[in-house]
Amino acid sequence: MSVADSYQAAFAARPARAEPGWLGQRRSRALDSFRRTGFPSRRNEAWRFSNLAPLTEQAFPPLVGGAPSPALLDLVAAHRLAEATNLVLMNGVLAPELSDALPPGAASMARAPEETAFADEAESGPAALNAAFSGDGLVLHVAAGATLEGLLHLIHVTSAERAASFHVRHFVDLAEGARARLIETHVAAEGAAHWSNEVTNIRLASGAEFLHAKLVGGGDSLIHLAAETVLVGDHARYEGSFLGLGGRLARQDLTVRLGHKADCAIGGLFLLHGEEEATLASTIRHDAPGATTREIFKSVLHDASHAIFQGCIRVAPDAQKTNAHQLSQTLLLSDRARIDAKPELEILADDVKCSHGATVGALDEDQLFYLVSRGIPAAEAGAMLVAAFAASALDIVSDDTMRRSLAAQVQGWLGRRA
């Protein structure tokens, strides 16, 4: 049986669900889409740098539910944030016994399937499988003019002891002038390989503000693919930060559409070692005048690791007064490490300020010499320069609590690799 056929068989064998008929029909259509397209190949421009062999050479049967092991409980405890409302999704399903109480406006996707806000299942094979198998996720509504009190933290973990996949779908809807903050953490204990497949749809009405950060903490067994679509209304603001600290394969696809005088800030930082691979693929669409974008991506690559940055900023003909800037910077700490960086601008308006750039290099020998000449050991001097390079990637995070949380994870990774 082929890998694609295994998902067809898993869909046919899944237990009957008490869900609306329209949802079952959408699942079937999504599976048909996957059967036609399969997983993306290198012939697809958006995926030509990615190595999907870990997904195409082995099947990952969908897994829902399960009992937490002591190791999983320890993993959850280690990643809880004292200053946040912590919600735990185990194998893609909200685990109330491991979670804090849901805040006002938040609900389980399993109990609110009408909110799924399905994206186009034909966009990619992974998104189609998500639409076919998704079992749970977060639904968040914030009313007009309201602010979600406190930081919301989603912790994604798995109890799988064999190869498995789980498919999560989130929907965030902020009404006019609403505000919310969300951090996601994807972590895994060492063990059997598993695939976390996530789709997120975010809708921000006029004047709303949403601060979103995601940490993929890895473990050599983790495969994580995510597709996020953000509609940013007039005068609204979206801030997205993506921190990749490893994993067998990780990819974040992001599509943002900006309204009149909307604001978008995107930050990415990958710290990789071994043969890990991670991708940030973003498309920022300026559809209306006066919007701004600031996008900064950095990566620190050890051993034979591989990072990919594909960032496209598109300015529509009517989007005059656009101000958009994009930068990719990579620090290579090994001759075997590599980066594929493809920053793009597509400008169809004439009254704009747009720029992009990419740099790749090793540690600065002059800076190393300066530190060593002051009595600092060479290894420590190198670690200091790497830490400074990585830390500046978090400057785009405007919220102090979120920035401290991400910075602590970066320092922990650097400490383990020093």
Which structural traits does this protein have?
alpha/beta, single chain, ten-stranded mixed beta sheet, 2 domains, 19 strands, globular, nine-stranded mixed beta sheet
Gross morphology: globular
Question: What is the averaged pLDDT score?
Answer: 90
Count of helix runs: 8
Kindly give the count of domains. 2
Tell me about this structure.
This protein has 2 domains: 3-258, no CATH class; 363-418, no CATH class. It is built from 8 helices and 19 strands. It has helices at residues 3-13, 21-37, 53-56, 70-79, 125-133, 365-373, 378-391, 400-417, and strands at 84-90, 93-94, 106-108, 138-142, 151-157, 164-174, 179-187, 194-204, 209-218, 222-232, 237-244, 249-258, 263-272, 277-286, 292-301, 306-315, 323-332, 338-347, 353-361. The strands form 2 sheets. It has a 10-stranded mixed beta sheet, with helices on one face. The protein has a 9-stranded mixed beta sheet with strand order 3-4-6-8-10-12-14-16-18. The longest helix is centred in the last third of the chain and has 18 residues, at 400-417.
